[in-house]
Amino acid sequence: MLLKWIIAYGVAALSFLMLDAVWLRWASVNLYKPVIGEIMAKDFNLPAAIAFYLIYIAGMCWFAIKPGLEGGGVQAAMLNGILLGALCYATFDLTSQAVMKVWSTQISVLDILWGAFVTGAASSLACWAVLRFAPATPAA
């Protein structure tokens, strides 16, 4: 039982971090800096970033991967991941757009789409890995 959650969290974290690193390298220069450069920190806050990733991956496991493992399969994990990602990223982006004078609709739309994609992809990969590699538990 514990093994499946270790696999789920590990695969979700690895895939999410790898994809997000590619996105952030591109988006920081091409999307964020031209619009919100004046409010961007010179360096990112590592403790805050670590906290975000630890908490967000745990949320993916509970809200997206778990329903897939409970019988919905990879498709359920993907759909729940897409919905979770869009909701979480929309919370940040639309709040930022509502309260910051330098935020743009373009950033919000692209970031929400990214959140939906990356969360859906990482959730489906993690669900697939657990279903493929974790031993099935006998029904009670």
Oligomer: single chain
Q: Given the helix and strand composition, which structural class is it? A: mainly alpha
N- and C-termini, Cα separation: 13 Å
Q: How much is the average pLDDT?
A: 95
* Main sheet makeup: none
Q: Portion of residues in helices?
A: over 70%
Number of continuous helical runs: 3
What is the general shape? elongated
Unreliable stretches covering 5 or more consecutive residues: none
What does this 3D model show about the protein?
By secondary structure, this protein is an all-alpha fold. It is 84% helix and 0% strand. The protein is built from 3 helices and no strands. It has helices at residues 2-36, 46-99, 105-133. The chain is elongated. The two termini are 13 Å apart. The mean pLDDT is 95.
Detail the topology: elements first, then pairings.
Elements: H1 2-36, H2 46-99, H3 105-133
Summary?
With 140 residues, the chain is an all-alpha fold.
Keywords, separated by commas or semicolons:
single chain, 140 residues, mainly alpha, 3 helices
